[in-house]
Write a structure and sequence with these properties.
With 367 residues, this protein is an all-alpha fold. Helices cover 64% and strands 2% of the residues. The protein has one domain (4-353). The longest helix is centred in the middle third of the chain and has 27 residues, at 218-244. It binds zinc ion (ZN).
């Protein structure tokens, strides 16, 4: 069932722009028909094309001169988004066995992506994600590997205030040491055998040699590949993980994270609405809430849902099962803030009922 905000946007904006609104928000209307139905092949092709486009835009200054520096930020956003799409979209669903036809084909696909992007090897991903994260017993608890990432790797503390956790987010996003720590963890997760060490080194050396040969500039590799691979990937990961679930905050554990604002009532308001849509929300859609991350709630209800067409799959599920799913509209910052606010409320409640000074999670951690 279409939300009030999406229904209002459908009523107030021309029909021609509705597919763009659906892409941006992550929610179609009840009667909307997709312009194009994706499948696994088209999703892999689209992510690969976006990756090549993003890298090309990021290194265009080596061919076209200083004027092309203006498109470097766009290139970095596209490359980061494509890398994250390949990982949290395609390799993720390959770990559930829903991208290609056989377990072996899914494993090969997952491993190629993990070696290209220096991410968790397919077999480990299956254990940590498909087994542990999806376990109803562990999901959104201190045993959930995704929450452990936020606490152990990123340093967030659910027993602290909203302001403290926002400061922590700013701290890690500006910390070279944090990016290095996270990337080293990725290297350890990807290089799980001598064979993989050779393969990962070969693939990364090939990317370096290819980009350097094509641009005659080793710096092009640093800007076009290394920065999105290490910095963009990490920033995107933490920005999405923070609102992936309602960590520790009870049910519903997962809600859809739609991007966008309610339609305004006056012309000036539309200028602001459009400005936020094509900057704040579009950047979040392209680089952070990629693939089916906005509709992650459907994935946890139905692991084998149509992940290649997630907004329509979620809409159709909800039409068949009214009231089963929940959602929130806002910016990426609003979705993150909801987590920090929920933690602050939980911490206050814990202090009021059980006067323990220790953090809610770290004092229960088993690791
Ligand atoms: Zn999953």
């Amino acid at each position: 069932m279409t939300t009030e905000i999406r229904s209002a946007l459908a009523a107030r904006l021309p029909k021609l722009v509705q597919p763009a609104v659906t892409f941006l928000t992550g929610e179609p209307t009840n009667s909307e028909v997709p312009l194009f139905r994706h499948n696994s092949a088209s999703r892999i092709a689209s992510a690969s094309f976006t990756l090549i486009l993003g890298v090309s835009l990021s290194v265009g200054w080596t061919w076209g001169g200083a004027a092309f520096l203006a498109v470097v930020p766009i290139g970095l956003l596209l490359t980061t988004g494509a890398m994250r799409t390949l990982y949290v979209g395609i390799a993720h669903h390959a770990s559930h066995g829903t991208v290609l036809d056989t377990p072996r084909a899914n494993a090969i696909l997952g491993d190629v992506i993990s070696m290209l992007l220096v991410t968790l090897a397919h077999d480990r991903y299956q254990v940590e994600h498909a087994r542990d994260h999806h376990s109803p017993r562990k999901l959104s608890t201190q045993d959930d590997p995704d929450l452990r990432f936020l606490i152990d790797v990123c340093g967030f503390d659910p027993s602290r205030s909203r302001a403290w956790n926002w400061t922590q987010l700013a701290r890690i996003l500006t910390s070279p040491r944090w990016y290095a720590t996270y990337f080293l963890a990725r290297i350890r997760g990807s290089i799980t055998s001598p064979t993989r060490a050779v393969a990962v080194t070969f693939i990364q050396a090939t990317v370096f040699a290819g980009l350097t040969a094509a641009t005659k500039q080793p710096l092009a590799w640093f800007v076009g590949w290394f920065i999105p691979l290490v910095v963009g990937f990490a920033a995107s990961a933490v920005l999405q993980f923070l609102s992936e679930h309602r960590w520790l905050a009870g049910k519903p554990v997962t809600i859809a994270r739609f991007l966008g604002d309610a339609p305004p009532n006056h012309a000036v308001g539309w200028v602001k609405w459009l400005g936020r849509a094509v900057t704040v929300h579009l950047a979040a859609r392209v680089a952070v809430l990629v693939s089916d991350l906005s509709q992650h709630d459907l994935h946890h209800v139905m692991v084998r849902s149509d992940w290649a067409n997630p907004s329509f799959a979620r809409r159709d599920y909800l039409l068949a099962h009214p009231g089963r799913l929940h959602d929130a509209y806002g910016s990426l910052a609003d979705h993150i803030d909801a987590t920090f606010v929920a933690w602050e409320i939980l911490a206050r409640q814990a202090t009021a009922t059980t006067p323990l000074p220790q953090p809610i999670l770290s004092n229960q951690s088993s690791s």
